[in-house]
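Reading a protein record of the kind used here takes little practice once its layout is understood. The reader may check this reading against the record printed directly beneath this paragraph.
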Amino acid sequence: MLLLSMAMYVDLVKEMIKFHDIAMAGTKSRNGYDAFHIAAKQGNLVVLKVLMDAIPELSRSCDSLNNMVLHTAALQGHIEVVNFLLEKGSSDSVVAIAKSNAKTALYSAARNGHVEILKSLFEYRAWNHDEELPSYFFPIF
């Protein structure tokens, strides 16, 4: 089922979902990636949408390094995936969740120079504080 997210053809993914136990999409590889993480890492928005419709709770899963799907997409620079996850209902708490090392998706995007993702996350207020911007952060755009 992990190969499901690597499929280039969304029709194939849809057919596989019909004929397989959908819970299998949540099965993780050794690195903790499930089908949703792989689609996010590859920037495969079409497959991600199909999986989100079938199993929306996968958007909250973590890999072995405690990366949520939003972290994975932000780290890889996939702006369309990040925007989709933000629009599709990743709650404020999911956006602000930090990995075990206290790094958020905002941090990952900044560290890797993904300015468009920074803009999207900034507009969504994706930092760990309720009202204030972190003291180390200043707008660069």
In short: The mean pLDDT is 74. The helical segments are 10-19, 35-42, 45-54, 69-76, 79-87, 92-96, 105-111, 115-123. The chain has eight helices and no strands.
